[in-house]
Amino acid sequence: MMMKNTQMSGPKNAVMLSRRRPGSSGVEPFLFNTFNTLFMIFLVIVTLYPFLNTIVVSFNAGNDTIRGGIYLWPRQFTMQNYNAVFASGTIYNAFLISVARTVLSTLLNIFLTTMLAYTLSRREYVFRKPITTIFVLTMYFNAGLIPNYFLMKDLHLINNFLVYVLPSMISAFNLIVIRTYIGTIPESLVESSRIDGAGDFKIFWRIIFPLCKPVLATIALFVAVGAWNSWFDAFLYTSSRQELSTLQYELMKLLSSSVNANSNPSVANGVGAEHATQVTPISIRAAVTVVASVPILMVYPFMQKYFVVGLNVGSVKE
């Protein structure tokens, strides 16, 4: 009987030990979760601190900012930096030009690039491979700045608002991403629509375009950020017409003026003589960064849910 009890107790003890093992090792998940949480908090702080510090510096007195030691709270709160940014009346018109440019560029780029991507995704289209190759080559080779300027001049786009919109209507990179995404859509949807008598444009508008919303939201964010942040084309093509100046170009001129005014007090173009001695390039740069970033930060949360999905699905083909 004693041997039987010993033999029977062996499996029972093994079962009890195996049941106790997860409970006894419960310290490991706790340590992992604690370390993971602390690491993510540290990562969030490191990511957000530069922008938070920029906001704080933009609300701090310029002369006091030079001393350093400004971290998460302004030492001498002031609105003088923003007053210097908005002192010029041209910045409001430049803001409207930037908004109009961003909206039109985004809408046209999304619609035309998607239409072209749908055309090049059709296997029955004979010239889809040569045309795709031509677009891909434009991603590697560029004619250069001077030939591009003469092209805009020959097209009568110098000092014309359309110079902000027409050159960016089609993007080769966006074309490849959208075409790859369209390739993931079942071909049976297109074939069934053709049987019902739908034409190519109706198939594109009623079926393909709505199904591409995730990748289109991603592309729209790319195009909008690029159009909003662009200032060099305004410097090249519309610098002689103040009414066509963009917000980024005006902010760039303001920052340059603040640097010149700081190095030479007699120079106060753009900043204003009453603000030239009260702001510094560091404080103006912080205020300019905040003014230029806020509109994009207001748009991004609405597209965030599509961003990762659209980029991953649109860039991988099975």
TrEMBL record:
<feature type="transmembrane region" description="Helical">
    <location>
        <begin position="282"/>
        <end position="302"/>
    </location>
</feature>
<comment type="similarity">
    <text>Belongs to the binding-protein-dependent transport system permease family.</text>
</comment>
<keyword id="KW-0813">Transport</keyword>
<feature type="transmembrane region" description="Helical">
    <location>
        <begin position="130"/>
        <end position="150"/>
    </location>
</feature>
<dbReference type="GO" id="GO:0005886">
    <property type="term" value="C:plasma membrane"/>
</dbReference>
<dbReference type="Pfam" id="PF00528">
    <property type="entry name" value="BPD_transp_1"/>
</dbReference>
<keyword id="KW-1133">Transmembrane helix</keyword>
<dbReference type="InterPro" id="IPR035906">
    <property type="entry name" value="MetI-like_sf"/>
</dbReference>
<feature type="transmembrane region" description="Helical">
    <location>
        <begin position="30"/>
        <end position="52"/>
    </location>
</feature>
<dbReference type="InterPro" id="IPR000515">
    <property type="entry name" value="MetI-like"/>
</dbReference>
<keyword id="KW-0472">Membrane</keyword>
<feature type="transmembrane region" description="Helical">
    <location>
        <begin position="91"/>
        <end position="118"/>
    </location>
</feature>
<protein>
    <submittedName>
        <fullName>Sugar ABC transporter permease</fullName>
    </submittedName>
</protein>
<feature type="transmembrane region" description="Helical">
    <location>
        <begin position="203"/>
        <end position="228"/>
    </location>
</feature>
<feature type="domain" description="ABC transmembrane type-1">
    <location>
        <begin position="95"/>
        <end position="303"/>
    </location>
</feature>
<keyword id="KW-1003">Cell membrane</keyword>
<keyword id="KW-0812">Transmembrane</keyword>
<dbReference type="GO" id="GO:0055085">
    <property type="term" value="P:transmembrane transport"/>
</dbReference>
<feature type="transmembrane region" description="Helical">
    <location>
        <begin position="162"/>
        <end position="182"/>
    </location>
</feature>
